[in-house]
Design goal:
Low-confidence stretches: 1-24
Strand order of the largest sheet: 5-4-3-18-17-16-15-14
Radius of gyration: 21 Å
CATH class of the largest domain: Alpha Beta
Number of domains: 2
Shape: globular
Distance between the termini: 25 Å
Strand content: 15-25%
Helix content: 25-40%
Number of helices: 12
Number of strands: 19
CATH topology of the largest domain: Beta-lactamase
Mean pLDDT: 93
Largest sheet: 8 strands, antiparallel
């Protein structure tokens, strides 16, 4: 899709004026309808409490911000069930892929400075990627056939997961290359990770499929190279500190470990097992050379809501401007062309496209079984079943924190969304879905 078209579409999604309520700019065109009422709060309470009572989660908390005010917060169950430590606002959780939108914001601060363009080749800033090849099957002897990509991988490809990068040793054809390269070894620097990825053939031609990948780590490397700062330092200086996200970090200090929520694994029988802390928390207990943009941050529900409120406010919060409104609009526009029909599991998120490091709802839910939400909403989630979304139409943001693996097999996200908006039905018209 031409950049001019994407930019034009972006302008239709959000429009922020300069007025401020509760530290967040009120969005022009936002519905005056109140989503979170007393009945809504009771419905959310009942929903989340049920997940704890039946043993589907050990503990859960949710925070909803609407029209400049905290509209809902509550917590149920335990941050550490075995220690009888209650879930609460001070709980520190692993956010996994909810790191990606934060990394994307860091990248886009450099876009605003004119440091790069989205359709420039990645190899301009990561020359390690100058000679990439695409896996095209095997010959009669079983040797891999590698061909040049049909076009260069662009920075836009990195941000929307169409780059072609291999993701796992299980990928057909390219898996053995990935296993040998070990790009995600936490003792790699971002540069070393890129070097190792460069030795792995692309899984598919850039721009032709959507496959979730570790491309945001390459974004993080571009941030390093354009800014001249280590990625984690740039992230701190340009995103976390301005937003006063004081408890969003890679390493949890020893003094805060008592607040670090336990991780639970849901087995085939439905029971929850406490994953040993020294295993579950290993990446966050000490500093490693790898500072990924793909995963790795920990946060609290209030910290992450500050990030969501910044996006809801068109890039600013409490007087701190991180991005311009037009940049947030660009991020919150789907950059996936309709020609990209192979989209892996993305359709399981509902009627969505993909913007810059988060999904974007482009159509109302097709049926009551789909995830609830409003056109123009943008959102993402994390491996441990965490979730956030920003709903400009209703001037609302929501954060749901839990520590549950495998990812949301209990349909917590669907239930929470239905609790916020009301169940999907023929008469549903929340914010003119």
């Amino acid at each position: 899709m031409p950049r001019s078209t994407i930019t034009a579409l972006a302008l239709l999604l959000l429009s922020a004026d300069c007025s401020s309520t509760g530290g967040t700019a009120r969005l022009q065109g936002a519905s005056d309808q109140q989503i979170v009422t007393a009945a809504t709060r009771a419905r959310i309470d009942s929903t989340l409490r049920h997940f704890v009572d039946v043993g589907n989660v050990a503990g859960v908390e949710a925070l909803v911000w609407e029209k400049g005010h905290e509209a809902y917060y509550n917590a149920f169950g335990f941050a550490d069930r075995e220690a009888k430590r209650a879930m609460g606002r001070d709980a520190i959780v692993q956010i996994y892929s909810m790191t990606k939108p934060i990394a994307g914001v860091a990248l886009m601060t450099l876009y605003e400075q004119g440091k790069f363009q989205l359709d420039e080749p990645v190899s301009k800033y990561v020359p390690e990627f100058a000679n990439l090849r695409v896996y095209a099957g095997a010959d009669s002897s079983g040797s891999p056939i590698l061909v040049p990509p049909r076009r260069a991988m662009t920075i836009r490809d990195l941000t929307r997961h169409t780059a072609g990068l291999a993701t796992s040793p299980d990928n057909p054809g390219v898996g053995p290359f990935f296993a040998r390269a070990d790009p995600l070894n936490r003792n790699n620097t971002l540069t070393q990770e890129a070097e190792r990825f460069a030795s792995v053939p692309l899984w598919y031609h850039p721009g032709e499929k959507w496959e979730y990948s570790f491309a945001v780590d390459i974004q993080a490397l571009i941030v390093e190279r354009l800014s001249g700062q280590p990625f984690d330092r740039y992230l701190q200086d340009h995103v976390l500190t301005p937003l006063r996200m004081r408890e969003t970090r890679y390493v949890v200090p020893a003094s805060d470990l008592p607040r670090f929520a336990a991780m639970y694994w849901r087995g085939d029988s439905g029971g929850l097992t406490h994953v040993p802390d020294d295993s579950a928390h290993a990446f966050n207990l000490k500093r490693y050379p790898l500072t990924p943009g793909t995963f790795g941050l920990t946060s609290t529900v209030d910290d992450y809501m500050r990030f969501a409120r910044m996006l809801l406010g068109g890039g600013s919060l409490d007087g701190a401007r991180v991005l311009r409104p037009e940049t947030v609009r660009l991020m919150a526009t789907s950059h996936l062309s309709d020609s990209v029909t192979s989209r892996s599991w993305l359709p399981s998120k509902g009627q969505v496209g993909f913007g810059i490091d988060f999904a974007v709802r482009v159509r109302p839910p097709a049926n009551a079984a789909e995830n609830n939400g409003v056109v123009g909403e943008f959102f993402w989630d994390g491996l441990a079943s965490t979730l956030f979304w920003v709903d400009p139409k209703n001037d609302l943001a929501a954060v749901l924190f839990v520590q549950l693996m495998p990812f949301d097999q209990v349909h917590l996200h669907k239930s929470f969304r239905d609790a916020v908006y009301g169940p999907i039905g023929p008469a549903s018209a929340v914010g003119n879905r």
